Amino acid sequence: MPDSDVRLSDTVPAARRGGPTPARPDIDFTPVRNGMDYLRSAFQHLAVPEGTEPDGRALKYAVLHLQAATEVLLKARLTHEHWSLVFTEPGTASWQKFTAGDFESCSLATTLDRLEKIARISLTRRERTAISSLAKTRNVLTHYGHSASAYQVEAQAARVLGLLLTFVSEQLRPPQATEAAYVELVMEEVRGRLGTINALVADRMKQISGQLAGHADYTVTCPGCRQLALVVGEWPEWSICLFCLQKFAASQEAALRWGWEVLGDPEYVDWYVDDCDCTEGAGSLLWPVNTVASPVEDVALCFSCRAVYVEVKDR
Ligand SMILES: [Zn+2]
Ligand SMILES: [Zn+2]
């Protein structure tokens, strides 16, 4: 199964499909328009009357279309560099395949790598994380039908939208007046709604701040919504994110899962689990962790008894 809902034709400008080869094939902004349409649709699914929440179906399409927007817009920028760069194997690229949309399009991770190495557009680690966690949510929703909470989708959407707005305005200004007007129109619309979503996220953080206050030492970033709101549970209690209400069972498993999802692949990112002295502490002590109480200094946190160690044991 392809890892994407984005049709290949979305990244190929309409004029290229079967049409005559333009004199400057690298200047054509139809993919930008496609991407903006997805962006607009994502917002429309999230926009519900005040006091209500988007239902499961609306959330699903908000995530799918936001993900599609991200992919199409990032790849559009790559095609401005050179159209062959959206092929999985640029060495096998041909103009004919490109115009027919008959090729395997590169993955999102490869797109980001090529943007950085070839187009010299670097996204911060935070931005890459925002994109990859949205992609994960999208995959889970598509293949397993898991129900994301409205809070989780809104927090993720706010992050990705914020970065797409910057990306579009800095990287994708189309030269044709009609395209530019359309992009500007959608940007206006999205900016306004982003403000609303950001306000929702801020409101909810404020709402739960009282509840979080007593748990600052063991409240960490939630892998689901990326808010600093996951209260680690004391075994056999579950860990729960007070922002998006996602829950995690089992201490050792929770530590590993948290490490993978928040810190990344241990092959590239330096983190490890150790044993804590508590009853269920085998493999539950994770380093390094930032908590509400210690947002900058790294500590080791036991995902079983919530003990915090400032000094790390020698390995
Ligand atoms: Zn959460
Ligand atoms: Zn412990």
Tally of strands: 8
Biggest sheet features: 4 strands, antiparallel
Q: How much helix, percentage-wise, in residues?
A: 40-55%
Structure ligands: zinc ion
Q: Provide the gyration radius in Å.
A: 22 Å
| Tally of individual domains | 2
What number is the mean pLDDT?
A: 83
Strand content: 5-15%
- What's the SSE pattern? HHHHHHHEEEEHEEEE
Residue windows where pLDDT falls under 50 for at least 5 positions? 1-5, 14-29
Distance between the termini: 42 Å
Compact description:
This protein is of the alpha+beta class. The chain is 48% helix and 8% strand. The protein has two domains: 8-208, no CATH class; 214-309, no CATH class.
Question: Overview of this structure, please?
Answer:
This protein is of the alpha+beta class. The chain folds into 2 domains: 8-208, no CATH class; 214-309, no CATH class. Helices cover 48% and strands 8% of the residues. The strands form 2 sheets. The protein has a 4-stranded antiparallel beta sheet, with no helix packed on it. α5 (125-144) packs across α6 (150-171) and α6 packs antiparallel against α7 (177-213). The protein is globular and about 65 Å long. Mean pLDDT is 83; it is low at 1-5 and 14-29. The site of one zinc ion has 10 residues, from loops.
